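User: Predict the structure for this protein chain, please.
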Amino acid sequence: MTNNNPIGVFDSGIGGTSIWKAIHDLLPNEQTIYLADSKNAPYGQKSKNEIIALSMKNTDLLIEMGCKLIVVACNTATTNAIQELRTKYTIPFIGIEPAIKPAATNSRTQTIGILATKGTLNSELFNKTTEKFQDTKIIEQIGHGLVQLIEDGKIYSQEMTQLLYSYLTPMIEANIDYLVLGCSHYPYLIPQIKKILPEHIHIIDSGEAVAKQTQNILREKTGFSSAQKKGESIFYTNTDSKVLSEILENKYTVEVKNF
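Assistant: Here is the predicted structure, written as structure tokens:
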């Protein structure tokens, strides 16, 4: 393995491309391989054992492709499987967790909202994180149906708008001043969410923090690519490539691969 090997990224579908974009913007010379396991989305409705098995399957494929580092661009996979992945494999892993700390630390109303999947909110890792902020009221909301609508290309549908209103209205009434997006799919809903939330409520996702951590791990463990040109990015999905291509604005080639 050399410094010029690719960074691997996987998610339960297309949502992790929000994380990939942040990494690609910060580290444009790095090669990347992205796996969209849309056939098994959403992970948030699956058992812990199922999530671990899917995460290992994705990891095995990325290692076969020569990746030097793997970004688990899925909150549910991180909170349920990251410890098992780090135990089984020697390759460095970077996970993605809901950005509760900056929200709780900066909240003036001491009330924050988190929109996430069932798998994330019910995980042991998430509960350990929230226990650290006993003085902050955390309004948790499972985003039932959101991931599937995004996977179906229905971000701006009436059904999506209705779901977001039903999930966000109780948070607004509870006087939150920060909304944490606890799923890598959800940043694609920010334009919709901003139409619903009052302007004073801040929206936080994990993309920038994950990109910076990726940079740190490359510096400490694997090394940066020595390429003097923009790194190649390859995208694989195990369902129809249309929605993934559209979310990438048709700027990249998306291959359909059975995994």
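Residues 138 and 236 are 36 Å apart (CA to CA).
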